[in-house]
Amino acid sequence: MVSYTTNIKVPIEKVWQHFIYKIEHPENFVPGVSNVIIKEKTADLVIRDMDIALPDGSRAILTEKITHAPYTVKFLIINHPIYSGYVDNIAEKISDNETKITFSLHWINKQTGEPFSNPEIAKKAVLKTADYILQHM
């Protein structure tokens, strides 16, 4: 598991609105994402496909089952060419105007059984999300 945390000067309610928006529009928050298709949507569950960039520069389709409840969003991998597992996006209230954002990647390489170990991916995703939230207040 790798994770990254940052604090932003934004109320948790605004961060949560962006976390929910991110479910259907991840291309604004996650590097290398395009062609998002929502396959199923209920009040607390979304199943989506999206094109992602792989480490070797090729592209693949990722299918995820996404669940959410204040203030956590879980992205469970249904189909990925390399990894199984999930990602948690967690918002925690620091004060009325500050929120801690943590992304934890619980990925396992399907061929080797090795846990994902590149903390830069988590850091880039958190910082891109924080930047997007701050620019769209």
Strand content bin: over 45%
Kindly report the spatial arrangement of strands forming the biggest sheet.
Answer: 1-7-6-5-4-3-2
Low-confidence blocks of residues: none
Q: For this structure, what is the CATH homologous superfamily?
A: START domain
Tell me the domain tally. 1
Beta-strand segment tally: 7
Question: How is this structure best described in words?
Answer:
The protein is globular and about 45 Å long. Strands 1-7-6-5-4-3-2 form a seven-stranded antiparallel β-sheet, with helices on one face. By secondary structure, the chain is of the alpha+beta class. The mean pLDDT is 95. It has one domain: START domain (Alpha-D-Glucose-1,6-Bisphosphate, Chain A, domain 4, 2-Layer Sandwich), CATH 3.30.530. The chain contains two helices and seven strands, in the order βαββββββα.
Secondary-structure blueprint:
Elements: E1 2-8, H1 12-24, E2 33-41, E3 45-53, E4 59-69, E5 72-79, E6 83-95, E7 98-109, H2 119-135
Antiparallel strand pairs: 1-7, 2-3, 3-4, 4-5, 5-6, 6-7
